[in-house]
UniProtKB/TrEMBL annotation, chains A, B:
<dbReference type="Pfam" id="PF13794">
    <property type="entry name" value="MiaE_2"/>
</dbReference>
<dbReference type="InterPro" id="IPR012347">
    <property type="entry name" value="Ferritin-like"/>
</dbReference>
<dbReference type="InterPro" id="IPR009078">
    <property type="entry name" value="Ferritin-like_SF"/>
</dbReference>
<dbReference type="InterPro" id="IPR059125">
    <property type="entry name" value="Ferritin_actino"/>
</dbReference>
<feature type="domain" description="Ferritin-like">
    <location>
        <begin position="9"/>
        <end position="189"/>
    </location>
</feature>
<protein>
    <recommendedName>
        <fullName>Ferritin-like domain-containing protein</fullName>
    </recommendedName>
</protein>
């Protein structure tokens, strides 16, 4: 077990964050399924939620292999992520889908960037559990169809997406301040401050492209 | 396709009911997971919920093989089952577990009895998707531990269980009146009115035994 493998180490902090994010993604998709306009759509969302829980188990097992208690590794993220979700409770089906589309997109990009700094085994696991494009495609198709049917929806959902990003950023800053090992990993992995800025720019550019792809304004 | 396979036939009515019950079980367990006192228990419930959705998909696919639209086959159960769950919203973790324990126990017994009247392929599928004992064991252990820690809980949960059965029976009667083919299957499969009475007696006896097994009074 190298130093990076110790409980409280960067890899444990990252796996703990991704594991808790999967658990919350399950919870949120299961709740959002109730907002579905019909049974087939509801079933699709339930099935996508179930995938998250399978991924959660793989991450929890990997945390165990690192000698970490999954429960302890996830706890530091509980308040910030729970608060984010409570502050951004979707009011309807489209808000729920837009939230998953926007937030999962940014989170997955972030996890993908950080995974590159891990050992091949941990990196491959994280890359493997990131949301597959099936869900993104489903959400994007629903949002596009809704905007095509009523163009006014684009404005409402654009505002909603901006609020999601704003709340998300403030919770992320809060988490970064507390997760020292992970923050150091990101800074060291990015080489220097300019590298971190470049990472943030890549995340922002990808988010802007995703918004444009479904007809939303940044 | 024999007559029993037609949409609106007994097998489609039963598979539709079990499929919708699985979808709702997923929904309910996912919501109940939020009531869990800690992360490990929350994760267990989420994982058990995910199993329901895999079962749901198998039933929906089988409905398709029978030439039935799963959506159409499930719709007749939506109001009654949704209403049951709304009327029996658990207030805490123990009420949630007791509800799953009591209700899944009765529903599984019922589905098992009716499955015996189906073709071997449909029968085996239904038997296969019924809740495995893992969940029942988990719920039973939690209830027993809570009663051991505070015997007064037994009274509260016994009352809760009686309410669940009462609400469940009134919704079941409502459904039976509407599902003609399924009701005929049960009556014919049971041979006669005495056979149906015997079936109901078996369900009641099994429920009473389950209640006693965790220290609850019927």
């Amino acid at each position: 077990m190298s130093e990076v493998d110790q409980p409280g180490s960067a890899v444990v902090e990252l796996l703990g964050m991704v594991a808790y994010a999967e658990l919350l993604a399950f919870d949120r998709m299961a709740a959002d399924a109730r907002l579905a306009p019909d049974l087939p759509r509801r079933a699709v969302l339930c099935e996508m939620a179930a995938v998250e829980i399978v991924n959660f188990r793989r991450l929890a097992n990997r945390l165990g292999e690192h000698g970490a208690d999954p429960d302890v590794a996830m706890t530091p993220y509980e308040t910030a992520l729970q608060e984010y979700h409570e502050l951004t409770e979707p009011k309807d089906w489209l808000e729920a889908l837009a939230k998953a589309y926007v937030w999962d997109g940014i989170a997955d990009d972030f996890f993908r960037e950080v995974a590159a700094f891990l050992s091949p085994e941990d990196r491959d696991l994280v890359l493997d559990v990131l949301h597959d494009s099936q869900y993104e495609d489903f959400a994007a198709a629903e949002i596009r169809a809704a905007i095509a049917a009523d163009p006014k929806i684009a404005n409402r959902l654009s505002m909603w997406a901006r609020r999601l990003v704003g709340e998300g950023l403030s919770q992320a800053q809060r988490m970064a301040g507390d997760r020292i090992a992970l923050t150091i990993l990101i800074v060291e992995g990015s080489k220097d401050q300019a590298g971190v800025q470049a990472l943030l720019k890549r995340l922002t550019a990808a988010h802007t492209a995703r918004m444009a792809a479904v007809g939303l304004n940044n």
